[in-house]
Design goal:
The chain contains eight helices and seven strands. It is an alpha/beta fold. It has two domains: 221 residues, NAD(P)-binding Rossmann-like Domain (Rossmann fold), CATH 3.40.50.720; 37 residues, no CATH class. Strands 3-2-1-4-5-6-7 form a seven-stranded parallel β-sheet, sandwiched between helices. Strand 1, helix 1 and strand 2 form a beta-alpha-beta unit. The radius of gyration is 19 Å and the shape is globular. It starts with 19 loop residues before the first strand and ends in a 7-residue tail after the last strand.
């Protein structure tokens, strides 16, 4: 066996200069936070997701200007394997390589099992799980050719524990951790890693809307909604930030994380320690 050991100065471990990262579901929220963090570490970035065209253009331009890297956008629908294939092909064609794949796209629906709409089940499984299968299988040939790659799946605390009324989301996120482990095992000798980040509640505009909605619905204060409803399961009683999740993604994408693969890393304030 030929053993090679590389040393890296502390200041170099997060550098992603000359790397290319694709982040699905990255026009807002956690995905955008991860995309901007990767751009801040020097990677060219492919944004993906839905939204108003002018707002997406502003986001793309701002990220490119702020960090001095190339940023492109794909409108690929994560329920379509053909659209995903075209997005991967366009990334390789336009940017020349694909080093970091972040599977972040996801949706949610809440309903009792016997009332759960079949169409919502199918859509959630397609976007939260099957899309990651398609991006991964299509990215791996390029990563194998490069002999390096990082696949980061944004799962959830619900990839490790369950909550009522979230059958499709919990099933998809549990499946995503299983996919993570399989990909890690199949690529372990090829310079490729695959890991899952499992956040609890992360503060985003969507969560802000939930706070206001819950406060009005229950006639309680914002602080009560945050502490006793949304963060009831999080012992630290605070939201994670998109910047924290982004920083973790940058670390997992770096050479410093070369020996970390196949794990589900909780960022949940102690939720899954119960």
């Amino acid at each position: 066996m030929n053993i090679q050991i590389k040393s890296h100065a502390a200041g170099d471990t997060a550098s992603l200069a000359d790397k290319v990262a694709l982040v699905t579901g990255s026009t807002s929220g956690i995905g955008l936070g991860i995309a901007r963090a990767l751009a801040g570490a020097g990677a060219s970035v492919v944004l993906n997701g839905f939204g108003a065209a002018d707002e997406i253009a502003r986001t793309r331009d701002a990220t490119e200007t702020d960090y001095g890297v190339k940023v492109i956008y794909s409108a690929a629908d994560m329920t379509s394997s053909d659209a995903i294939a075209e997005m991967i092909a366009a990334t390789l064609r336009d940017l020349g390589r694909l080093d970091v794949l972040v599977n972040n796209a996801g949706i949610q629906h809440v309903a009792p099992l016997e009332q759960f709409p079949v169409t919502k089940w199918d859509q959630i499984l397609a976007i939260n799980l099957s899309a990651a299968f398609h991006t991964t299988r299509l990215a791996l040939p390029a990563m194998r050719k490069q002999k390096i790659g990082r696949i980061i799946n944004v799962a959830s605390a619900h990839a490790l524990v369950a909550s009522p009324f979230k059958a499709a989301y919990v099933a998809a996120k549990h499946g995503l951790v299983g996919l993570t482990k399989v990909a890690a095992l199949e690529t372990a000798e090829e310079g490729i890693t695959c890991n899952a980040i499992c956040p609890g509640y992360v503060y985003t505009p969507l969560v802000e809307a939930q706070i206001d909605g819950q406060a009005k619905a229950h006639g309680i204060s914002r602080d009560q909604v945050i502490r006793d409803v949304l963060l009831a399961q999080q012992p630290n009683k605070r939201f994670a930030t998109v910047e924290e999740v982004g920083a973790l993604a940058v670390f997992l994408a770096s050479e410093a994380a070369a020996s970390i693969t196949g794990i589900a890393l909780s960022v949940d304030g102690g939720w899954t320690a119960h």
